[in-house]
Structures are given as C-alpha cells and as structure tokens.
Write a structure and sequence with these properties.
This protein is of the alpha/beta class. The chain is built from ten helices and ten strands. Helix 3 crosses helix 4, helix 5 runs parallel beside helix 6 and helix 8 runs parallel beside helix 9. It binds {5-[(3-aminopropyl)amino]pentyl}boronic acid and zinc ion. Belongs to the histone deacetylase family.
C-alpha cells in the first residue's frame, strides 16, 4: 500500500512534558516517524508519497477556528512575551469557569483550548501539525479515488484532539479530518476503529452526536489510564449518534487473548454498520515494551491484528497515532500493515 509521509513532522519537537510530577523528556518524538518510515521501506510496503496541500477549510470542518488560530500563532505571542521553552498552559478550563467566553489573553486561550501538560507548542510546531493533517487528507483522497488501502504516517498524532480542545500530544484530529473529507466527497458512512492503547477522547467528542461515523475504541480503561475522564463503557453516543459509539475498555495487563476478543467484538460492530470506508487510528502503544503503557501485545500480535482488520474487506486508511517503544515501533506498526496485506 502507498505510504503518505512528510519530513515536516520533525518540525514539532516537544521540549518535554510534565509526567507524574516531573518535567521529563518527551515520549512523542521525531524518531518515532523516522523509524516507522525506515521499516516500511525495508519491507517494501509501497511507494512513499509526499502529502498534497489542502485549504484550511478541510481542517476547520472539524476544528474551532479560534483553536486553530492559537495553534498557528500562539507561539509567536508566547515568544513576544519573552518566554522560553514550549507554550504550555498554566491554568486548565474546568467546571465553574466561563465556557461561553474565549479569552483574548494568551494564557487564557491556552487554558481555554489545551487540556494537559504534555502538549506544548514550539516555534515550528504548526508546520508539523498542518503537515500531519495533510498526510491524513492525502490518504483520504487516495481512498476516495479508489485505493483499497493506504497508510498515512501522521505525526504528531491526533485522536485526543477534540473540536475545540487539544492535548495528549495531539493538536489536530487527523483521523477525524480524514473521515470528514471522505464524507464530503460522497461517502455515506465511515467507521473509525481506534486501536491505540489510550482512549481517543477527541474523536469521540467530535462524532458523539452523529450517525454517519461509527467509532469503535479499544483502550485501557479510564479508571486506570489517561485520559481518565472519558472512554467508559457507558458512552453509547447521543441524539442521532446514539448507538454509534462503542467503547471497549480493558484493564492494565491485558494480553492478546483478551485484546483480540475485544477486536472481534469491534470488528463485528463495524461489519454490521457496513461503512463505505474504514479508518484505523493505529497506535501501537499496546506493545508489551511500551514505556508508558500496560498492555501485553507482542510483535506477532500486530500481524494478527492486521489480518483480522483485512477480513472486513473494506477500503481502509491507516492513520498513525501513538507508540513510544521507539526501537520497536517500526516493526509493530508495519506488522499491522503487512498482516493486513496478508504477507
Ligand atoms: C497519546 B496517544 C500520565 C502520562 C500520560 C499522555 C499520554 C498521551 C498518549 N502519567 N501521558 O494516545 O498515544
Ligand atoms: Zn496512545
């Protein structure tokens, strides 16, 4: 399958993150995408293509224009204030604060739109963020043009970014932007299968009230794991979207036996929905050696995962999300794709 990739991802390099009370080196780093690309080339997955450019409108179909403006211009304001390091919020929006009033002040806007202490903006972050969305959009365009599969090697990832909030190393929701593009080009139904270790809270928020996107999420239970505040089993969707969100939370320590049972449940729901297109939010942080995760999947299980997804027989776009065992991330991610291709 074609691989969509831009070296511009490296323009986002987080200066670090607050993790369990300490400021530590970022887990989400440029080497991740480079190593996945190297592995894709090594196994001859397919031609590597640069993304096309898309109008900003393709992004604001999903995201709040004020948030996009902060992502584009926030760091320049930060720098003007004489700040060093990355642009992090200090305050976080929560119950009791004004939701209806977007602050003009930079700190206020960071508080309004950003929900964690792991997702700083730097001087060149926007170029990487936008290129990641374009990598997803270019993959979506390939599917619209009739490709049976494509791999959008997105970085930074996207599934924690909601319509008007960002965090979890994610700024724009690449998968949601791709799904919307496919719908705007005439598809009636899109399914998103999110296999990242973490719950894709942003994707869920974006499509929660809609029935033209089915979201199936397999992830570590929010009772134990980030993002803590969403991703429980009793979140079925609302309004027209009721019945079109399926969360399959699993406990720390989950192995392939239990994980693959959830995948089976998820795949059956996808098949029942009979979408025109399947989008896979591909995180490989379910790997047993992942430094921030607690599941037990090994290399060969990623191959099995790809094989099961292929059995759905749908045009499928893979969109890269998480995975932090950097040395093994190429093997794990590409195993899903070669498993899908039946090799
Ligand atoms: C992004 B993706 C808590 C650390 C949590 C945020 C994880 C974001 C994961 N001590 N850090 O879903 O892979
Ligand atoms: Zn993750």
């Amino acid at each position: 399958m074609d691989v969509i990739y831009s070296p511009d991802h490296a323009l986002h390099q987080s200066p670090g993150e607050l993790n369990s009370g300490e400021f530590v080196a970022a887990f989400e780093k440029p080497e991740r995408a480079q190593i996945i690309l190297d592995r894709a080339l090594a196994v001859g997955l397919g031609p590597v293509l640069a993304p096309e450019r898309f109008p900003l409108d393709a992004i604001t179909r999903i995201h709040d224009a004020g948030m996009v403006d902060l992502l584009r211009h926030g760091f320049a304001e930060w720098e003007k204030l004489g700040r060093k390091g990355g642009a992090f919020p200090f305050t976080f929006f929560t119950r009791g604060f004004r939701a209806d009033r977007v602050p003009q002040n930079l700190e206020g806007r960071l508080a309004h739109y950003c929900f964690d202490a792991g997702t700083p903006l730097t001087a060149t972050s926007w170029q990487a963020i936008e290129s990641s969305a374009h990598v997803a959009l270019t993959g979506a365009a390939a599917i619209v043009s009739g490709a049976s599969s494509v791999f959008s090697l997105c970085r930074p990832p996207g599934h924690h970014a909601g319509s008007d909030h960002y965090g979890g190393y994610c700024f724009l929701n690449n998968a949601a932007i791709a799904a919307q593009h496919v719908l705007d080009q005439g598809a009636k139904r899109v399914a998103i299968l999110d296999v990242d270790y973490h719950h894709g809270n942003g994707t869920q928020q974006i499509f929660y009230q809609r029935d033209d996107v089915l979201l199936v999420n397999i992830h570590a239970t929010p009772e134990q794991e980030y993002p803590y505040l969403l991703g429980f089993a009793d979140e079925p969707g609302a309004g027209a979207g009721e019945g079109f969100n399926l969360n399959l939370p699993l406990p720390w320590g989950t192995d392939w036996e239990a994980w693959s049972a959830a995948l089976e449940t998820g795949c059956r729901r996808v098949a029942e929905y009979a979408p025109d297109v399947l989008l896979v939010s591909l995180g490989v942080d379910t790997y047993l050696g992942d430094p921030i995760s607690q599941f037990k999947l090994d290399h060969e299980h990623f191959t099995r995962m790809g094989e099961r997804i292929a059995k759905l027989g749908l045009p499928t776009q893979f969109v890269m999300e998480g995975g932090y065992a950097v040395a093994e991330i190429g093997i794990n991610a590409v195993n899903v794709l070669t498993g899908f291709e039946g090799r």
